[in-house]
Amino acid sequence: MSRSFPAQISNSRVFISPGDTISLITDGSHIYEISGKYSGNYLFHYLLKQKNLRFIRPTSKHENNWREFKEEVQTLRQNKIAVLDSLHSISLTSEEFYSFSKREIAYSYYAQLLSVILSKKAPKRDILTEEDVIEIEQLVLLKATSDIDIKSLFFQEFAANYLKWKFNHIENKDDKLTQGLDFIKSNYSSTCVESLMCYWFFNYCSTYLAIDNPSHFDSLYSSNSVFFKSYEFRERMQEIYSKIHGIEISIPIDVQLTELLSKRINRTTLGKIIADNNRYQYCVLDFWASWCQPCIKDRLNSAPTKNFLKRKNIKIISISVDHSSKNWERALEKYKWEEDEYLLLDSLSLLLSKYQIQSFPRYILIDPTKRHIISLNAPRIASLDSWKEFIFYLEKKTKSIK
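The structure corresponding to this sequence follows.
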């Protein structure tokens, strides 16, 4: 019998061969012990973690030298491939896993490069060469590729960033929505279309706080509804439709039952916290993590916005997604953050999956009295001007309803 190996699945597809044995270690860190013919299928992500080959985040040192950042990300990609090749060379990975993982490495690599360009931090000339653009375009044309790519979070992030990058030059939001949908239908496999179309509609409504004329959205929503076959995507499109038309989204009971840990190490639920704060006009759910530098920077520069929200009777409730309670507590102590701080106890919770909370920081605005979601993508907490604009829009809409 093959000996067992520790494995880090890392949000990736699991490739199980006949005769493999899989057992879950229930410590909450998504680590498994697995034995079988192709042990490398399960060992690969664990080795990446052990070798610290997971992710490189841009820091202040890169701001004046983005080519250095690209070199670091490029080296990371090469090192990941080297680990994968070493496992494959001694027949520890299946062919399917090997080819899929190589594509995932490419998706992750280009998703990150496109991300820094889209954030307007880095100029395109310092990040993408002509060879990069050619490879990106080849990765985009997935009609002949296995459908397993579509479920990959690495692919979804890459495709989302590609779409934003490709249509970034179009200023008219309605034209951008239309051209993006047409491109998706023309260039992606049928199983991928509903996922990316749903994302593109979501991007449209989250980018613009107010949609003055929803008729264009309605027309495209109606004509493309045939693509939304799964319950998951139909539900997401209903949420997007509700936001466009100012219809409040109720927070389901199962989401309200999400367990959280308070700073006093007491267990509670999201629903209980909402109920305890129902005297406020709105509540802001601030999703962050101690390892997320943009989160830390945002919070450290949030004083003006917090004062403004306090005057508007709006409460901020912070929810950390840290896997380690010690890291969370250490960050709270370091920055002297004490009030309304909670830790999410289940990193696979319905709360994160239902509202597609995958990148941080992320802010969701709710009405605690009605237990309704007002905005699934509220402005960054350090952006005072955006919050003033947002609240002015909400106040104006409320008055018009009355």
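The chain has a mean pLDDT of 84.
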